[in-house]
């Protein structure tokens, strides 16, 4: 069953990871849809006031304080920053205050809304219920071969998590059906994941490959010690569904960004 379910409510169409929200009621976990052309990223040349208004509208729809919104300035790298309560709100209304050169965020704190932006790259979302730690990571092909997923798992273990209890979710992103790469990218993936199956990386002609980054990240997380049944894997492809998603490849770079998120409220707040 598809773990990310679409809901079009309160003027903010989104995909929610309802399974986690039911099991852990203090969490909100999901990803925006492109409904109404709403772009949530400040770095794509959109009017900043309109982007901030979109963010505030989403906050209202989710019944979350906009002041909790926290994000990094993504660079397709593998740096992960621990967000403390006093960092709450960084990047919410200005790129200047976002965590610089950061593609992964992790926190122990409640009331810190971890957000990250996407238009084909893979959103990796994490929760460790034993220590109540949440995380989010942005994995394009560079972040994937750089191991940002396994790095997040190791960071959470350093924070006290039992790897056998860590949950991971792979949210909507471009699928192997649509993501064509060259030998340079295919070779980089094969170096870090030599066991990659034909389902992950498939040669379609000399110098051309189809790459499923979602499956590659799933395999890398399992190799790092996450139990297979603890990895939620979407079937939504951002390129295949223009009615729901922005896609950098499909739209030839001229497109907005969805936002993926995870946040934990104080237990008992609902």
UniProtKB/TrEMBL annotation:
Coiled coil (residue ranges): none
Entry-linked Pfam families: Cu-oxidase_4 (PF02578)
Catalytic activity, as annotated: inosine + phosphate = alpha-D-ribose 1-phosphate + hypoxanthine; adenosine + H2O + H(+) = inosine + NH4(+); adenosine + phosphate = alpha-D-ribose 1-phosphate + adenine; S-methyl-5'-thioadenosine + phosphate = 5-(methylsulfanyl)-alpha-D-ribose 1-phosphate + adenine
InterPro entries attached to this UniProt entry: Cu_polyphenol_OxRdtase (IPR003730), Cu_polyphenol_OxRdtase_sf (IPR038371), Cytotoxic_necrot_fac-like_cat (IPR011324)
SUPFAM superfamilies attached to this UniProt entry: CNF1/YfiH-like putative cysteine hydrolases (SSF64438)
This protein's record includes keyword rRNA-binding: no
Keywords on record: Hydrolase, Metal-binding, Transferase, Zinc
Cofactor(s) this protein cannot do without: Zn(2+)
Record family assignment: Belongs to the purine nucleoside phosphorylase YfiH/LACC1 family.
Function recorded in the entry: Purine nucleoside enzyme that catalyzes the phosphorolysis of adenosine and inosine nucleosides, yielding D-ribose 1-phosphate and the respective free bases, adenine and hypoxanthine. Also catalyzes the phosphorolysis of S-methyl-5'-thioadenosine into adenine and S-methyl-5-thio-alpha-D-ribose 1-phosphate. Also has adenosine deaminase activity.
Protein name (Swiss-Prot/TrEMBL): Purine nucleoside phosphorylase
UniProt organism field: Polycladomyces zharkentensis
Taxon lineage: Bacteria, Bacillati, Bacillota, Bacilli, Bacillales
